[in-house]
Specification:
It contains eight helices and seven strands. By secondary structure, it is α+β, with helices and mostly antiparallel strands. The strands form two sheets. The chain has a four-stranded mixed beta sheet with strand order 1-5-7-6, sandwiched between helices.
Length: about 280
């Protein structure tokens, strides 16, 4: 979050008692004129993160008794010509192993896209990611009994090591530092908004998304450079006249890749044409 460095910004003046924000329409860049605007899919894996974090937080509270093969696997019925010692065991659908593998699939997908995961999710990935890697990546995993028993025992050991990390003083200290940083950022944003209202008692709020035609764009360094190019040379550009400031956050969406969500705040005493502003941003 920042005030535009190319434009003069003053925080002088007392805050007015009559404050208001007008909101312009959001702008989504189209791939071409013949296609619909991009809309976030309803199966967005980001929406699963709160429940996944809750499941990870509950792990240290669950008993860690020695696991049996039947806790994680169920025997596949033998065919008439199949010998008993050739029996295969399939991952049980309601087992912890199956549920955690589903969580891992979501976390691995978001992690590959550089999504910011919680410390709990990262620790979960570190200890259990092997469950979804070769040779165990199949959703309907079925293994010979010796290998299935080995997986169950390794899963038990991974849960124990994960629990040990989550309950360690060092990990709890890192979580506290992360929460303190998040509160500090929220406080900075509130301070920034108060300063914006002191500069202009009426604000026009213009939200836009800056994305790419490439549906899975993931070049982090280039997208930061592109955003800086978009914002540079504001002095003397009529598009940025009466711009009070802007805030922005970089997001990763599985269906779109890297996207900049940005909010531009204008002095609404002089600028009220939100629709035409959005068209001007689209051209830029």
């Amino acid at each position: 979050m920042t005030l535009p460095p190319d434009d003069p910004a003053s925080a002088k003046g007392a805050p007015t008692a009559n404050r208001s924000i007008a909101m312009a329409c959001s702008f989504n860049r189209r791939e071409d004129t013949g296609k619909k605007e991009w809309i976030l899919p309803s199966h967005d894996p980001v929406k699963l993160l709160p429940d996944i974090d809750k499941a990870i937080l509950a792990i240290p509270q669950r008993p860690l008794q020695d696991r049996l093969l039947e806790d994680d696997f169920v025997a596949v019925p033998l065919t008439p010509a199949q010998l008993k010692h050739h029996r295969r065991w399939r991952v049980k659908e309601r087992s912890r192993l199956h549920q955690y593998r589903l969580h891992l699939e979501t976390l691995m997908q978001l992690n590959d896209g550089r999504y910011h995961l919680s410390l709990y999710a990262r620790a979960f990935l570190h200890h259990l990611q092997w469950c979804c890697q070769e040779p165990y990546e199949r959703r309907d995993l079925a293994l010979p009994e010796p290998l299935a028993r080995q997986v169950s025992q390794r899963f038990q050991a991974s849960l124990e090591s994960l629990t040990q990390e989550l309950t360690s003083p060092a990990f709890k200290r890192r979580v506290k530092e992360s929460e303190t940083l998040a509160k500090s950022r929220a406080s900075s944003l509130r301070t920034w908004m108060r300063a914006a209202f002191r500069q202009a008692p009426y604000l026009l709020w213009v939200p836009i998304q800056l994305g790419y035609r490439n549906p899975h764009y993931a070049d982090l360094a280039q997208t930061l450079k592109d955003r800086q190019t978009f914002l540079k040379n504001r002095r003397g550009n009529p598009l940025f006249n009466y711009l009070v400031g802007y805030v922005g956050k970089l997001h990763y969406f599985p269906g779109k890749g890297l996207v900049h969500d940005m909010i531009f705040l204008y002095d609404a005493r002089y600028v009220q044409e939100g629709a035409s502003l959005l068209q001007a941003f689209a051209k830029r």
